[in-house]
Design brief:
Layout lengths: L9 E4 L56 E3 L5 H4 L4 E3 L5 H10 L4 E4 L5 H6 L1 H21 L3 E3 L2 E2 L23 H20 L3 E6 L1 E3 L12 H11 L2 E4 L7 E5 H13 L9 E3 L3 E3 L1 H9 L6 E4 L3 H8 L8 H7 L7 H18 L6
Parallel strand pairs: 1-4, 2-3, 4-5, 5-7, 6-7, 7-11, 8-10, 9-13
Antiparallel strand pairs: 10-12
Helix pairs in contact: 4-5, 6-8
């Protein structure tokens, strides 16, 4: 049975900044909900007009400009604001989120709001508020309005006691960052609500995601973005990880495509609610060597940061994504060679368009 909702709409939540306040939220409970919500089991065919509200990380090309409403808590850059609908959405403002859902007849909710690993460790209280309180707002709204819910997870959901090479979908998870703890909490809450109330909860564990349009934002894998900008500006990159630190990585295009394909997969094909997705795994020295095939002058020095290095050493070396490949046909398009060539081309074009020098 294919689960479809007519005139579907998706609300995407994306956090780019730190919130300096909290609100007084009305107490809500799962106890008043029926054991199963049959509205998720509708066999009514999907409307061809699919309204989708996604975060700034999702591609409008999949659905059409007017069918995608982007959201953030910060003023969007001009090219984002003029590219289609945009709304302000604070994941801690339950009442406003409810208004957005009701007024736009939302049926899919895509929840990206989070503080990442290193930033979260620097402000645990704020990370707990955004990553966990914000998640519970989203879960409550999804249940209250019978929404389908996508929440990304992370390589950081694993810990030093997890299998590292490769890390399977189901194994011991004991992360040692608030970011990882909050993501494991999200995975388990989503699975619990799926089994108890029938919530169509879907979650992908992302590896390090590499994109020209998203600047480093406090993640442990951010060196793999910064190194391309440094290679084309100064020709020198100082890496905060050891040269042999191997971590799973993915091109942003593969990340977008995996997310959309997973969201569109018929529920009957899914054997899990949370899947690993993989593309490649490399070390700082390996990506530097690949960049030097294009820019031989690149110099990389290593000055490991104890906090980020400790985090990286607790994460998997590789993901086992065999379940995603089997259940819904996941297959990456970018390997390290394709990723490096595309990133260098994209960063060069971006710097040229911004009037910045290119070495």
């Amino acid at each position: 049975m294919r689960l479809c909702v007519p005139n579907a709409a998706v609300l995407g939540l994306f956090c780019r900044g730190c919130l300096s306040r909290t609100g007084n939220w009305t107490s809500r409970s799962f106890n008043s909900l029926p054991r199963k919500m049959s509205r998720w089991n509708s066999e009514e065919p999907c409307s061809p007009h699919l309204n989708v509200i996604l975060s700034l990380l999702m591609s409008r090309k999949q659905y059409g400009t007017e069918n995608v409403i982007l959201s953030d808590i910060k003023k969007p850059p001009p090219h984002v604001f003029t590219s289609g609908p945009f709304v302000y959405a604070d994941v801690l403002d339950y009442k406003h989120l409810r208004e957005l859902i009701v007024n736009n007849r939302i049926t899919w909710l895509v929840h990206y709001s989070a503080l990442l690993s290193a930033v979260g460790e620097a402000n645990v209280a704020l990370a707990r508020k955004i990553n966990i309180t914000g998640l519970h707002n989203v879960l409550d709204l999804a249940l209250e309005n019978c929404l389908r819910l996508f929440v990304p997870s992370t390589i950081g959901a694993f810990g030093p006691s997890s299998p590292r090479d490769p890390a399977p979908d189901l194994c011991v998870q004991r992360p040692r960052t608030i970011y990882g703890v909050s993501k494991v909490h999200g995975e388990l809450m989503g699975e619990y609500l799926h089994h108890k109330y029938g919530l169509d909860f879907r979650c992908l564990r992302y590896p390090g995601v590499i994109s020209v349009n998203t600047p480093p934002g406090g993640g442990t894998t951010d060196y793999a973005v910064q190194i391309f900008h440094d290679a084309l500006s100064t020709g020198h990159h100082e890496c905060y990880l050891r040269p042999d630190t191997r971590l799973p990585m993915m091109h942003i295009s593969d990340c977008h495509r995996a997310t959309v394909e997973f969201m569109q997969a018929p529920e009957c094909q899914l054997s899990l609610r949370t899947y690993n997705i993989a593309a490649m795994s490399f070390t700082p020295e390996e990506v530097a060597q690949e960049i030097r095939k294009h820019l031989p002058h690149l110099k990389v020095t290593y000055n490991p940061d104890s906090i980020r290095q400790t985090i990286a050493d607790s994460w998997p070396v590789r993901f086992d994504d065999s379940n995603a490949r089997r259940d819904w046909g996941w297959a990456p398009a970018f390997g390290i060679e394709e990723l490096v060539a595309d990133m260098l081309r994209s960063v060069r074009d971006k710097r040229t368009n911004e009037g910045l020098p290119v070495s």
